[in-house]
Specification:
- This protein has 294 residues and is an alpha/beta fold.
- It has a domain of 183 residues: 3-Layer(aba) Sandwich (Rossmann fold), CATH 3.40.50.
- Helices cover 42% and strands 16% of the residues.
- The strands form three sheets. It has a seven-stranded parallel beta sheet, sandwiched between helices.
- Helix 7 crosses helix 12 and helix 9 crosses helix 12.
- The chain starts with a strand and ends with a helix.
- The relative contact order is 0.14.
Length: 294
């Protein structure tokens, strides 16, 4: 049995679909079971509720061999601990209680770098990884740079104004990855019962690109000029506050993006094992262009 958390999210939904297609026994933890695609509901078990709830994870992890772990977004959290370490504590107790063998989690690049202890949300995510590993379970943290799919949040600006914003220098080359490649890596590990120990698995995409490179590629694919505009961290803070984000999460985002602007995502050496296939150009063709054209 493989347990999938956040099964309707950007990554979890792809993990779910691939596991079911492969014939795996799957149990979902879902706050809103009605959002699970109707074609999949009859093929999975569902535990309704939050995977931050002790009773829910106790029921969900019983008899499970492996767990896909991803905490949900919590933009109103009073403390970053509530989003990561605090949220994961009940699950860690259930992992021990039920003898779960393997856990695959979604985390971030940055461990061991000079920026790791001042990277906001990333710092909090790394602390969550340490907590899960402390249970003794075989744990792989999938550690990523920024997602290509995050660009969808700026689809309106790209469509209407021909621009996108990023809080970092236009010439800083860094990896970027597609959520479909993250999901594929997670599925590969979830289906393999043979690995042991605790560690990280980077998912770097196939190339390092700067914001200027991203703008050039989007211009080519969309068939119109797209400009990069550097976003000041103070302007990022103001935008988050305007959207009602809590002070703690606002600070966490700002510190994370400041660290990325200083090169947080550039320390891991690229290898065949952490280089994933989807190029930004292909992602723009398959995912971004249909959204912008619509």
């Amino acid at each position: 049995m493989i347990v999938v958390t956040t099964p309707t999210g950007a990554i979890g939904s792809q993990v779910l679909k691939t596991l079911v297609t492969a014939g795996e026994r799957v149990r979902l933890v879902a706050r809103d079971p009605g959002r699970i695609p109707s074609g999949l509901q009859a093929r999975v078990e569902v535990v309704a509720g939050s995977h931050g709830d002790a009773d829910v994870v106790d029921r969900a992890f019983e008899g499970a061999r492996a767990v896909f772990w991803l905490p949900p977004s919590n933009m109103q959290a009073r403390h970053l601990d509530d989003v990561y370490v605090g949220f994961a504590r009940p699950a860690c107790e259930a992992i021990r209680r039920h003898g779960v063998a393997n856990v695959v989690g979604i985390s971030a690049l940055g461990r061991g770098t000079p920026l790791a202890d001042r990277a906001g949300l990333v710092t909090a995510s790394l602390a969550m990884d340490d907590l899960i590993a402390s249970t003794g379970v075989a744990y792989r943290a999938l550690v990523m740079p920024s997602f290509m799919d995050n660009m969808l949040r700026q689809a309106s600006a790209i469509r209407e104004r021909g621009e996108f914003h990023w809080p970092g220098p236009g010439d800083l080359k860094a990896p970027t990855c597609a959520t479909r490649d993250i999901a594929d890596m997670a599925v590969r590990l979830l289906r393999d019962p043979t690995w042991t120990g605790q560690g990280e698995q980077a998912v770097l995409g196939p190339e390092d690109l700067s914001p200027v490179d991203l703008a050039r590629i989007m211009s080519d694919v969309l068939g119109k000029p797209i400009a990069f505009r550097e976003l000041a961290i103070d302007d990022l803070r103001a935008s988050l506050a305007q959207r009602g984000v809590s002070p703690a999460v606002e600070e966490g985002y700002a510190d994370m993006m400041s660290a990325k602007a200083e090169g947080l995502d550039t320390f891991v050496v690229r290898t065949p094992d952490n280089t994933t296939p989807t190029t930004f150009r292909q992602w723009c063709t398959d995912v971004l262009k249909p959204v912008v054209d619509r």
